[in-house]
């Protein structure tokens, strides 16, 4: 419920989603790496797919030779041959 209200308020006030608490931030650098902030947990880790749970959605990264060279409780770097980054749910 709060997420819907926050999203509508951000749209109405023309506020960037980056300032909404808990919303994931995803930066893709070419086809070699993806940097994610505000993820909650790792749901699946395979060489061809990594699934992360964020507060507001699921983040799915697909590719080949995927690995996680760096992560903390709040941020993560995924590297490999990235073929897709998808957001599921809401």
Task: Provide key terms for this protein.
90 residues; mainly beta; Immunoglobulin-like; six-stranded antiparallel β-sheet; 1 helix; 6 strands; 13% helix
Can you walk through the features of this model?
The chain contains one helix and six strands, in the order H-E-E-E-E-E-E. By secondary structure, the protein is mainly beta. It has one domain: Sandwich (Immunoglobulin-like), CATH 2.60.40.2000. Strands 1-2-6-5-4-3 form a six-stranded antiparallel β-sheet, with no helix packed on it. A hairpin with a 3-residue loop joins strand 5 and strand 6. The longest helix has 12 residues. The model has no long low-confidence stretch (mean pLDDT 85).
How is this structure best summarized?
By secondary structure, the protein is mainly beta. Helix content is 13%, strand content 57%.
SSE inventory with pairings:
Blueprint: H1 2-13, E1 25-29, E2 33-37, E3 39-45, E4 49-54, E5 58-71, E6 75-88
Antiparallel strand pairs: 1-2, 2-6, 3-4, 4-5, 5-6
């Amino acid at each position: 419920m709060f997420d819907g209200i926050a999203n509508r308020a951000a749209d109405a006030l023309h506020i960037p989603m980056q300032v909404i608490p808990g919303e994931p931030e995803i930066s893709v650098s070419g086809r070699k790496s993806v940097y994610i902030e505000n993820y909650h947990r790792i749901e699946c880790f395979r060489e061809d797919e990594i699934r992360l749970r964020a507060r507001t959605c699921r983040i799915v990264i697909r590719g080949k030779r995927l690995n996680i060279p760096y992560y903390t409780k709040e941020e993560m770097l995924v590297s490999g041959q990235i073929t897709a980054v998808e957001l599921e749910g809401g």
